[in-house]
């Protein structure tokens, strides 16, 4: 009597034990790459979380200090020889309350960089996705894929939410990059926050609809059961697979590719225009190699995501797809996390790893590429500083040798205690 084919549609939803050799070899590769994605995404997420918490605490202390300084009486410090007229705008010089008005002027509220907010949420999505494929280690440990277990249901849920959320935030970053680079437009901070919340709500709503509509697969033997090499949506619910998952994946693939190609073509056109001009643009455009690097984003996304999507569509069409293909495709999509960390960490290094990246307002060309010396402005030791309320730029104090008897009597004595240089910079 011939053995039943475990990959036949009528048997695919059942438990599979023990694991065939192809399953075991393939799931080992998927699990290793998923663990790499999980660890790298989690480490970067924790790093950014610490930076964001420290930044928010710093902003809170600055706001509190400003409030305290505004209420406390103070006098103008002229020990460095700076005349009072340089401290405030002309309209406030003759105002008897000029000092109080300048000190009580609220600071411009700072926000985290918009791109950084989107990458932070992409890392959360990548952790969802990596966790789903990391659960394959459970099947290796049990030597079988066991349906109707918490691990199987959790894996199916995480595959659905992880794949979709990762695609959503990759597309959101593509839209933001397109607006910043091509349209030279920065959306309001509230719009970015609303987009993040909306994408997470959409992600969980779509996954939850499958559970609600099918009553958790009550009529088909369960919603999340074995689907080839791991647990996912029951093959009996092909319409739900397409409408609640792969439709949005393909939309994301198309939009992300189209947007980054538009960015690339726009930069190429600007480069050709720049080459004909004698004057350089205020913001230098990326080199040809950097422009081509923009195509890496959709290329890596397509390579990692499309093979599994095509395999599932082929299965829905009745084609036989070998388990080795699904394991290879699973290894690719499980690599999304560590590849995102590598790609964004290299190409947006300035925003992610530098101290000034948290509240940087730059999200377009200026934030792209590995940082170089001098990019983003002069990096000094903190000697040059512009106090709040001062109209002109910075004060540079160059101290020379004090004259005889002048030491200890206050800087800038008559005998040549120092040189005062006022740098006026708006």
From TrEMBL:
Statement: the UniProt record of this protein carries the keyword Nuclease: no
Keyword DNA damage: no
Topology relative to the membrane: Multi-pass membrane protein
Principal location listed in the UniProt entry: membrane
Keyword annotations from UniProtKB, A to Z: Membrane, Transmembrane, Transmembrane helix
Record Gene3D superfamilies: Rhodopsin 7-helix transmembrane proteins
CDD domains named in the record: 7tm_classA_rhodopsin-like
UniProt xrefs under InterPro entries: GPCR_Rhodpsn
Chain ranges passing through the membrane: 26-50, 115-137, 157-179, 191-213, 246-267, 293-311, 323-346
Cellular location(s): Membrane
Name recorded for this polypeptide: Glucose receptor Git3 N-terminal domain-containing protein
């Amino acid at each position: 009597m011939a053995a039943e084919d475990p990959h036949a549609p009528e048997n695919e939803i059942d438990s599979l034990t023990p694991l065939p050799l192809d399953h075991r070899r393939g799931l080992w590769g998927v699990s290793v790459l998923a663990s790499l994605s999980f660890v790298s995404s989690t480490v970067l997420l924790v790093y950014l979380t610490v930076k964001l918490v420290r930044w928010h605490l710093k902003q809170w202390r600055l706001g509190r200090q400003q409030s305290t300084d505004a209420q406390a009486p103070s006098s103008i410090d002229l020990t460095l020889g700076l005349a009072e007229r340089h401290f405030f705008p002309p309209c406030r010089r003759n105002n008897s309350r000029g000092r109080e008005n300048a000190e009580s002027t609220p600071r411009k509220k700072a926000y985290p960089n918009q791109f950084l907010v989107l990458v932070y949420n992409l890392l959360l999505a990548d952790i969802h996705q990596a966790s789903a494929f990391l659960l394959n280690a459970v099947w290796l440990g049990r030597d079988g894929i066991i349906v109707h277990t918490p691990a199987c249901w959790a894996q199916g849920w995480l595959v659905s939410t992880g794949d979709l959320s990762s695609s959503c935030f990759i597309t959101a970053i593509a839209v933001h990059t397109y607006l910043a680079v091509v349209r030279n437009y920065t959306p309001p901070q509230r719009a970015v926050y609303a987009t993040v919340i909306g994408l997470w709500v959409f992600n969980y709503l779509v996954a939850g609809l499958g559970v609600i509509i099918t009553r958790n697969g009550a009529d088909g033997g369960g919603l999340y059961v074995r689907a080839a090499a791991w647990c996912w949506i029951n093959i009996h619910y092909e319409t739900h697979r397409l409408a609640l998952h792969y439709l949005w994946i393909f939309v994301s693939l198309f939009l992300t590719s189209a947007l980054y190609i538009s960015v690339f073509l726009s930069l190429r056109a600007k480069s050709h225009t720049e080459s004909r001009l004698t004057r350089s643009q205020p913001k230098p455009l990326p080199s040809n190699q950097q422009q081509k690097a923009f195509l890496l984003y959709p290329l890596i996304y397509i390579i990692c995501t499309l093979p599994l999507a095509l395999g599932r569509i082929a299965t829905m069409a009745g084609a036989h797809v070998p388990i080795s293909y699904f394991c290879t495709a699973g290894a690719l999509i499980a690599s999304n996390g560590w590849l995102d960390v590598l790609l964004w960490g290299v190409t947006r290094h300035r925003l992610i790893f530098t101290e000034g990246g948290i509240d940087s307002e730059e999200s377009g060309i200026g934030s792209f590429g590995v940082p170089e010396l001098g990019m983003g402005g002069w990096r000094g030791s903190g000697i040059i500083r512009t106090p709040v309320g001062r109209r002109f730029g910075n004060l540079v104090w160059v101290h020379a040798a004090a004259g005889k008897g002048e030491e200890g009597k206050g800087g800038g004595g008559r005998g040549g205690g120092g040189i005062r240089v006022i740098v006026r910079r708006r």
